[in-house]
Amino acid sequence: MSAAIPPSVLAGIKETLGAAVVGGILATTIYGITVLQTYTYFRRYPNDSTGLKTLASTPSLVEFARTELGLLQVGVLFILDTVTTVSIADGLYGYMVTDFGRPDQLSVTPISLAVEEGVTVVIATLCQLFFAHRLWVFSKHNKFLTFAIVALALGGLGPGIAITIHLFVNKEIFTLGSDYIRILSGFANGLAAVCDIVIAAGLCWYLQTGRTGYKRTDNIVDKLIVYAINRGVLTTACQTAHMITAVAFPGHFYFIPFAFCLGKFYCNTVLATLNVRQSLRQNDVVDTALEAGSRILGSTTRASDSAGDESLATIEFAKLRSRDQDHMTTTLDGKM
């Protein structure tokens, strides 16, 4: 018969499993949203460049040198998120089925969870570099801003990889509460959170300065600013919560749900950024048609007896719509 588990160890195991189960449920739910967003992307934008799609299958790497290495792509990103989901499921299965009734194994970190940690760090970095590339384009090659984002993203990547290596080398799960891991987590999550704040601030600034004075285009800019803020709040909040729970509560595992969900939040922020383009275009077309139609209606009411005026009204509508569509397309394709 196996030896009885000491109460103190049993309490730690229960806490670990409880946090892992909650995190697994949340992560799987968010993964369902990732699947839907990826499907929507490929259905909605079949004509996007292959480079961009191979980011929403990965997101766009920094295109500074304008080479083929400049694009992260939508298939690779989806595949990486799938890997983290499978890793979480495998880790939970190992704890609750394979190693059930084996106390000596319950304190060992499954390899799959080490894989999940490493892939999540990579996903976060790729998504941050995608937005760095977007800002590089929006800002007309602002080297200082882009370099700051890239430096922060890679600065968070280093400690994250170090934590992953630790999980592979040191199998004891309770070492995650050590000072070494707390310091690494503080740097990894802290730098990533600052990076997300800089990205959100940069997007808002350059979107704001990109106003044209046309009501419909400015409305689109307002919506894009809201999306940028929401994106920054989501990932920054998760990174901050992960950092606080890992650093302030050593020996506990409150950080696990945030760790499991983090990569999926990043995936969905990139996919949402790509998928929102069509809905913004459709809304703008409706607004343009309504406003132009109102102008034409007023024109024809005042000049109902003149066929020439009706023709001019039709021409005015065509010009107005063309003008607004040009501004709208420039905004969406340049900003998204």
What does this structure look like?
It holds the Pfam family DUF6534. Keywords: Membrane, Transmembrane, Transmembrane helix. This is DUF6534 domain-containing protein. Helix 3 packs antiparallel against helix 9 and helix 8 runs parallel beside helix 10. The protein is 80% helix and 0% strand. The radius of gyration is 25 Å and the shape is elongated. The chain starts with 6 loop residues before the first helix and ends with a helix. The chain has ten helices and no strands. About 18% of the residues have low confidence. By secondary structure, the chain is mainly α. It has one domain: Rhopdopsin 7-helix transmembrane proteins, CATH 1.20.1070.
* Helix and strand composition category: mainly alpha
Number of DSSP-assigned strands = 0
CATH class: Mainly Alpha
Uncertain runs: 58-72, 285-323, 327-332
Q: Which descriptor suits the 3D outline?
A: elongated
The rounded distance between the terminal residues' Cα atoms is: 62 Å
Instruction: Profile the largest sheet.
Output: none
- The domain tally reads 1
CATH-defined architecture: Up-down Bundle
Mean pLDDT across the residues is 77
In DSSP terms, counting alpha (H) and pi (I) runs of 4 or more, how many helices? 10
Radius of gyration: 25 Å
- Which fold name corresponds to the CATH topology? Rhopdopsin 7-helix transmembrane proteins
Instruction: Return the string of H and E elements.
Output: HHHHHHHHHH
Percentage of helical residues? over 70%
Strand content: under 5%
